């Protein structure tokens, strides 16, 4: 089946410019807009809302409708049904922890930006054949981190990665300094205990620190 990756509306460029993509787990829809505003005010205008909770699609819809300046995508998408729900809610990109080709092909056919998981040469070759040139590298800390991505990038020239898993405030600068890495996904600035009381000021502060790290790492 012939497919073509469209990089809709400069998605890769937006991803690279943001640098750190907050990986958000939300249990309550009412937290969606405050989260989006905290990230925007902190200087990280993106959110990967994970499909780990029943509220995910509704949270995406709230963010998209009420905070149009934030780039909202869906994460932990493991099948086509979830991808459809995410896109219907307004998600601008799909992130998967693995390489489910049915989901990848559906996204490509519907011109939806997709970052499937790809950590082995075989997975990367399969995705490159579908014209997918950025993959999620998860869990980065268990699959070799920066040395592994550098080795893969030396063979698959031009392919880039978004690592998540083990990425932290302490090491994200190292990840972002590597040219094989387009952006890094992290949870440290959006952990549920940071806003359990409804106060998102700590989220904003940590997002601002992350945004400063992006500027320092990439000039």
Compute the number of helices.
9
Dominant shape: globular
Helical residue percent band: 40-55%
Order of helices and strands: HEHEHEHEHEHEHEHEH
Describe what you observe in this structure.
The protein is an alpha/beta fold and 219 residues long. 42% of the residues lie in helices and 15% in strands. It is built from 9 helices and 8 strands. The strands form 3 sheets. It has a 4-stranded parallel sheet with strand order 3-2-1-8. Strands 4-5 form a two-stranded parallel ribbon. Strands 6-7 form a two-stranded parallel ribbon. Strand 1, helix 2 and strand 2 form a beta-alpha-beta unit. Helix 2 runs parallel beside helix 9 and helix 3 packs parallel to helix 4. The longest helix is centred in the C-terminal third of the chain and has 18 residues. It starts with 10 loop residues before the first helix and ends with a helix. The relative contact order is 0.17. The N terminus is likely disordered.
TL;DR?
Helix content is 42%, strand content 15%.
Please give the structural blueprint.
Layout: H1 11-18, E1 20-24, H2 32-42, E2 46-50, H3 56-66, E3 71-75, H4 80-89, E4 93-95, H5 101-109, E5 113-115, H6 121-128, E6 134-137, H7 145-155, E7 160-163, H8 172-176, E8 184-186, H9 201-218
Parallel strand pairs: 1-2, 1-8, 2-3, 4-5, 6-7
Helix pairs in contact: 2-9, 3-4
